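Progress report, Aim 2. The chain analyzed during this reporting quarter is listed below.
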Amino acid sequence: MTVDEAAVYIRNNVDILEVVSRYVSLKKVGRNYFGLCPFHSEKTPSFSVNPGKGIFKCFGCGEGGDVIKFLSKIENVSYREAVKMLATEVGISVDENTETEKILQVLEEARRLMNGVLLTRSGALALRYLSSRGVKPETIGIFGLGYDPSRDFLQKALVRKGFSADLVRKAGLTNSIGNDFFGQRVVFPIENLSRRTIGFGARTLDETNSVKYLNTGETATFKKSRVLYGINQALPSMDKTKSVILVEGYFDAVVLSQEGFSSVVAILGTTVTPEQSRLLSRKVRRATFLLDSDDAGIMAALKGCFVLLSQNIEPSVALLPEGVDPDEMALRSRNKLSETLSAPVNLFKFLELCAARYFGGMRSPEFLEALSQNLRGLTTSPLLEMAINELGEKMGLETKTLQSFLSSRGA
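Predicted structure tokens for the chain:
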């Protein structure tokens, strides 16, 4: 079945209400269903779904269309990829021969090639490095880790496989002068929820190199703010516990998963993004930050707590001793890490800690300003509203007074 044929079938057979309800809390009003728009920040529901016509429409930002358009927009995938995702759900196959599909194919082949290097003499140095970081051979297989041994290994190998140099570049595997982008680096394949490889992270083996980590740049398949590293390995545990552990980096996710903390994903940045939180909200109700306990890590967790609340996820923070990385603690003091994760600091205790350490207390103008900054631009949610109300009580402020202040600051 062609993409166009599949699209027609999907429009006629897929319930848009069921699909939208995975992402948006809807309430029936007459023939339509209304909820808060997932595509812009609002406090009054203006997002409408008409199941009879199979369409959605936001009267606030103007977004609208059919079930394919909705999935494409909410998951940040192409129209064609959205058709494929829905086609899989209803059990139909789609013929593919597009550039995006070719990029996915070259990424999969690159993954296979770089993983294979670890079994050769060229990969011995990388294998020793992974071992020194506590990564076991079976973990290498589970996560598909690999190594690019030179500046031109991947480019030459992929061209020999029949992929054009231009396609290899578009996949983010070579730079502007044709050299391997991840040359002499250990690589971490990054997957989407369909288990397709969409990009890579990489760590240099040269300790004198100031650029320790690299990610694939923005491509047709990869946008860092919208992916979570290790999501497919973590999903079984996340589905069971309805909770997730959020770490910053690749080794944190790999080693914690290996050591039995299976519901762990890496956010690939300083804090969780709204897009990542929206993805998590489909799977979990609770999330625990396990980030560095330095000032940057604390501030990242502070911002991230409100991002999670905006997607109805209850946040907490597990505080590590300063200077200790999560992967190190998992290897050296697994029981202590388990105790830390089993008793994280809840939202309000964490806010009190931040307010006292950085802002002179919870009623200080500086803390109120930081609060408004962290709330700015976020979609409201029942859990976020409850948190603001309770925060007002703890600060000795009437809810209306606090909300009025936050609104005046654009939050």
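The first strand starts at residue 27 and ends at 29. The mean pLDDT is 91. These observations will guide the mutagenesis work planned for the next reporting period.
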